[in-house]
Amino acid sequence: MEERYATEEQQIEAIKNFWKENGIAILLGGAIGLGGLFGWRYYNEQQIEAQEAASTAYETTLNALQGEGGFTKGAEFVKANEGESYANLTALQLASDAIVSKDYAEAEKQLTNVVAHAEVAAVKNLALLRLARVQVELGKHDEALASINKMDVDQYRARALEISGDIQQKLGNTDAARAAYTEALELDGVSSLVQVKLDNLAVAGENQ
User: Fold this and answer.
1) For residues 69-94, b (16+ Cβ closer than 10 Å) or e, as one string?
2) Of which family is this protein a member (predicted)?
């Protein structure tokens, strides 16, 4: 696994753990704030119970993903819980599995779903980054650039620039590719892969 993917996976794990540890507490906070309007008892019985059920179903789904028919079960969970945080995390996992299988169309479908429904910025931006990579694989260069431009934080800026460089290189825009790779290196100087891509551009230019 490439280092950048390991880092992204670590962030997903952090988000998963956050929801496991704090999901109920977040709902409790909302319930206290809404208690005067809708009634604490109703909120407690309906929302908190639903959150606990979703958490349990999510854990069951994650375990099922490893077995036969796991992908189908995961997709059913996402559809049944569309828009919920656990559904978004499951869709991210489904997209990762699809990428490993080189089913980029399915990966695009799952990631597009996450982008459309994720309310947590870290999840949405990670989905956009991966969506851009998948769209590059599908030859959808304009869509990939659009996905990158929708990212609203600097957290993945270096990786987004790398993808932009890849796209510009594929389109034959060498100067634009070089500029993107150079800026990516300035933001993340330890990326040996970006340096290789930049060096390859220089070699290609010398051979022309």
Assistant:
1) ebbebbbebbeebeebbbbbbbbbbb
2) Belongs to the YfgM family.
Query: How far apart are the C-alpha atoms of 150 and 116, rounded to whole Å?
Result: 12
Q: Within the chain, where are the H helices?
A: 3-38, 40-43, 49-64, 70-80, 85-100, 104-117, 121-137, 141-149, 157-170, 174-187, 192-207
| Residues 166 and 139: beta-carbon distance below 8 Å | no
Q: For 8-33, what is each residue's pLDDT tens digit?
A: 666 666 666 655 555 544 444 444 44
For residue 133, the SS3 value is helix
Q: Where are the domains of the chain?
A: 3-143, 156-208
Distance from the Cα of residue 125 to its chain's centroid = 6
Residue pLDDT, tens place only, 30-85:
444 444 444 444 444 544 455 555 556 666 666 666 666 778 888 888 898 888 88
Residue 135 CA to residue 88 CA, distance in Å, equals 19
SS3 (DSSP) at 109:
helix
36: DSSP letter: H
For 120, counting Cβ atoms within 10 Å of its Cβ (0-12 exposed, 13-18 middle, 19+ buried), the class is: middle
Cβ-count burial of 190 within 10 angstroms (0-12 exposed, 13-18 middle, 19+ buried)? Answer: exposed
What would the two tokens of residue 189 be? 């100087």
